[in-house]
Write a structure and sequence with these properties.
Strand order of the largest sheet: 1-2-4-3-5-6-7-10
Order of helices and strands: HEEEHEHEHHEEEEHHEHHHHEEEEEEE
Strand content: 15-25%
Structural class: alpha/beta
Largest sheet: 8 strands, mixed
Number of helices: 11
Number of strands: 17
Distance between the termini: 22 Å
Shape: globular
Length: 513
């Protein structure tokens, strides 16, 4: 979307301090430091860890913000770590929570580019050691399902904040979802799994009845009457807490994955969010194109057949979901490197490794920390460290940083282009002398907003703009003291009302539910 500068300059000059007119913010690091607020509770729900307990646990996140940011609306990235749905070390790997080295590094890098980052933990718990494939598959799919509900609860929490307290100053029209490893599974399934019927495809039907899981032969592993619907509402109150920011939507506008896979190709449809994918072609745990999911362990456990990034991005492009950055509009070194190996599939960055069988080259860890931390799970940390090196040879911080450099260099220009981030309003100074003269209610609003003078002043003009500065509505007014502005036709998000009374002008932010 482009602004007509001739028509918008008076509005821009009055409204914005400063206005993002260059491609540095969001693409490059423009802030030197980041503010981190840790362990914010975004929800609460039943965990299945330890297995079979189903106890309520707080859902927490760390929020990263660019220090000293003048923006009043910023895009937000909901970032999700890896971990195979078991706690770090207990899962037999050196990674598995929001404090993982790579997750923290990426959160900081995104925030230094101007994003708000919600680095979340999500619920864990499944049975990878069962000899019954239905129990293994069922408990893992239920864990995936719970993590999708948690990510949606986080998105609703952030939207609720934007419409009420506005602590994090996020743009509800620019919500990005991403993750590595297990977090990549969550991101891909979040944007594609949107129909309850998709939970009843043949491979998701149990052949076993086990009330402890719970699964029933002939029924889906995901029983929505027990675990709630796709958004996290309903179900059995002993298994699902529906009170996680109800009343707000949980749609997102862009997704990226680093590894991971999607449950089924039929879930991808036209209109799904734009997607960028990074994937090691020889990943032994998540197939690059299609195949069986293996969860890390000793030995790795086979679970279910899925499609990986290669096939996901083919379909996303085929359905036009990535048209916002395709055909290829970039000619940078990262794009050229991807195009040399992705067979023309825009948005896909395959990593061909030597040796070929590797996973998560962006991850790194401290071996001494692993040895000490594994004791809490009764695990041998030396074994965990050495086993992890089998699929991440020559692991080091320098190696991980090089891959994270590539992720940032390829991903961020595409997010910025698709979401039109460098046209966003970044400040809304309001006329304090007029603030007490007019009442604007309700705000947030869903169907209409009433604008009324408290002092019998005549409203000479009202204009409504979206967050890019584009004029949406110009009611025909003639000296009225009150006006009802219909907004039912508008998309949810941030808007700005310009009110003129005589020679005075008031700009006021409006949140459309």
């Amino acid at each position: 979307m482009k602004i007509n500068l001739h028509k918008s300059i008076p509005f821009i000059m009055a409204l914005i301090v400063p206005f993002c007119v260059h491609a540095q913010r969001y693409v490059s690091e423009v802030f030197s430091s980041v503010t981190v607020t840790s362990n914010i509770q975004y929800g609460e729900n039943f965990s299945n860890f330890p297995l079979g307990t189903f106890q309520l646990q707080p859902l927490i996140m760390d929020v990263y913000e660019p220090a000293g940011d003048p923006c009043l609306v910023r895009p937000v990235i909901v970032l999700m770590h890896t971990g195979s749905y078991l706690p770090r070390y207990c899962n037999g790997t050196p990674t598995g929570d929001k404090n993982d080295s790579a997750t923290v590094e990426m959160a900081n890098r995104f925030a230094k580019r101007g994003y708000v980052v919600a680095n979340i933990d999500y619920r864990l718990g499944w049975n990878p050691l069962s000899s019954n494939v239905d129990v293994r598959r069922g408990t893992l799919l239920q864990a995936v399902y719970r993590s999708l509900q948690d990510a949606k609860a986080c998105v609703r929490f952030l939207k609720k904040d934007a419409y009420t307290n506005n602590v994090y100053k996020i743009d509800t029209n620019a919500i990005i979802l991403g993750g590595q490893g297990t977090g990549g599974y969550i991101a891909l399934n979040y944007i594609s799994l949107d129909d309850p019927a998709e939970l009843s495809i043949p491979k998701l039907i149990s052949g076993t009845t086990d009330p402890l899981v719970p699964i029933v032969a002939g029924q889906s592993y995901i029983n929505q009457n027990i675990f709630g619907d796709l958004d996290g509402f309903g179900g059995d109150p002993a298994f699902n807490n529906s009170n996680n920011s109800p009343g707000y939507t949980n749609n997102v506008h862009f997704a990226f994955n680093m590894g991971g896979a999607l449950g089924d190709s039929t879930w991808i449809e036209p209109g799904d969010a734009p997607t960028v994918a990074f994937h090691v072609v020889g990943d032994p745990f998540a197939p690059y194109y299609s195949g069986i999911v293996y969860v890390p362990g000793n030995p790795p456990q086979a679970v279910i057949d899925v499609i990986g990034s290669g096939r996901v991005l083919e379909l996303a492009n085929q359905y036009g979901n990535n048209n916002c950055f395709s055909p290829n509009l970039f000619n940078d070194s990262f794009t050229q490197a991807a195009n040399n190996v992705n067979n023309g599939v825009e948005g896909l960055f395959p990593f061909h490794m030597i040796p070929a069988v590797q996973s998560g080259p962006w991850e790194w860890w401290d071996s001494l920390t692993v040895v000490q931390g594994a004791l809490l799970c009764g695990q041998n940390g030396t074994d965990i460290h050495m086993n992890a090196l089998i699929t991440n040879g020559n692991m080091s911080k320098a190696k991980a940083m090089a891959y994270i450099d590539t992720v940032m260099g390829y991903l961020n220009p595409r997010i910025e282009l698709c979401l039109n981030l460098c046209q966003q309003v970044v400040g809304t100074p309001e006329n304090e002398s007029m603030e007490s003269d007019f009442k604007i209610s309700p705000n947030p609003a869903q169907d209409y907003v009433s604008i009324a003078s408290k002092t019998s002043q005549h409203i000479t003009a009202i204009e409504l703009f979206d967050y890019t500065g584009r004029k949406i509505s110009v009611p025909d007014l003639t000296g009225e003291g009150q006006y009802t502005l219909p907004i039912h036709h508008l998309a949810s998000g941030t808007y700005f009302i310009k009110i003129e009374s005589g020679s005075s002008t008031l700009f006021k932010k409006l949140q459309k539910l």
